[in-house]
Design a protein that fits this description.
Elements lengths: L2 E6 L14 E2 L2 E2 H10 L6 E6 L13 E4 L11 H11 L4 E5 L8 H12 L5 E8 L4 E2 L2 E2 L16 E11 H7 L7 E6 L10 H15 L3
Parallel strand pairs: 1-4, 1-6, 4-5, 7-11
Antiparallel strand pairs: 2-3, 6-10, 7-10, 8-9
Length: 216
């Protein structure tokens, strides 16, 4: 059973230029997630999937570079196009699709998802953050009664996807999707689920990193 992780990266980010190589603590942003992947014992191989060979200077030991077409860096390219290109190039039984914009993902989380798939009880896994808030949709209460709002801890939780997905090869090749009938949800806390897209996300990540490492 071969398990391969792949991390799509592009260096020409629009919303936050050079996002994936900006410093976070004592290393570039991309190295945090990549080093975490190297600590996940259930992974056989780890690839960075990028069009620019320059990314190789930032890769830690145990991570390989696979060059992709520059067409996958364009606005027209969708994430599933990237997945399809990688799956076509690298054969595996299980794929782990992660993103360096989630620098606080833990190795234990990755292994929990893989264990769920390897057990045969699940065919895919998805990292999620839990939402227990009073939600409104188009000006109306969505998940609570206006005249009797419950405590937030008593609400049925919603789950928002975080950029970590795992799936058996046949899940993607047969459905074209990264989850199927029996997904396993890896529920993350707010820090682990933090995602960096905008400048404010990056600044918050710097603060979180400082707090997390202040006691070391």
């Amino acid at each position: 059973m071969k398990t391969v992780a792949f991390v799509p990266i592009k260096l020409n980010n629009e919303r936050l230029p050079n996002k994936n190589i900006l410093p976070l603590g004592d290393k570039p942003l991309c190295q945090h997630l990549l080093e975490t992947l190297t600590k996940a014992s259930l992974l056989d191989e780890i690839f960075v999937f990028c069009s620019d060979p320059e990314i190789q200077r930032y890769l830690p030991g145990g991570v390989s570079f696979l060059q992709r077409s520059v067409t996958l860096d364009t606005f027209a390219a969708k994430h599933y196009d990237i997945v399809r290109a990688f799956v076509s190039a690298i054969d595996a039984d299980i794929y782990v699709n992660a993103h360096v914009t989630n620098p606080f993902i833990k190795a234990e989380t990755i292994e929990s998802g893989l264990e769920a798939i390897l057990s045969g009880e699940h065919d895919s896994a998805c990292a999620v953050s839990e939402i227990r808030e009073h939600l409104w949709y188009e000006g109306k209460p969505f998940n609570f009664a206006l005249d009797d709002p419950p405590r937030t801890q008593d609400l049925t939780p919603f789950h928002a996807e975080v950029g970590l997905f795992m799936y058996r090869r046949e899940v993607f090749t047969e459905t074209g999707l990264r989850y199927c009938e029996k997904p396993y949800f890896m529920v993350l806390d707010k820090v682990e689920a933090h995602d960096i897209n905008e400048r404010s996300d990056y600044e918050l990540a710097q603060a979180l990193w400082t707090v997390h490492n202040s006691g070391r």
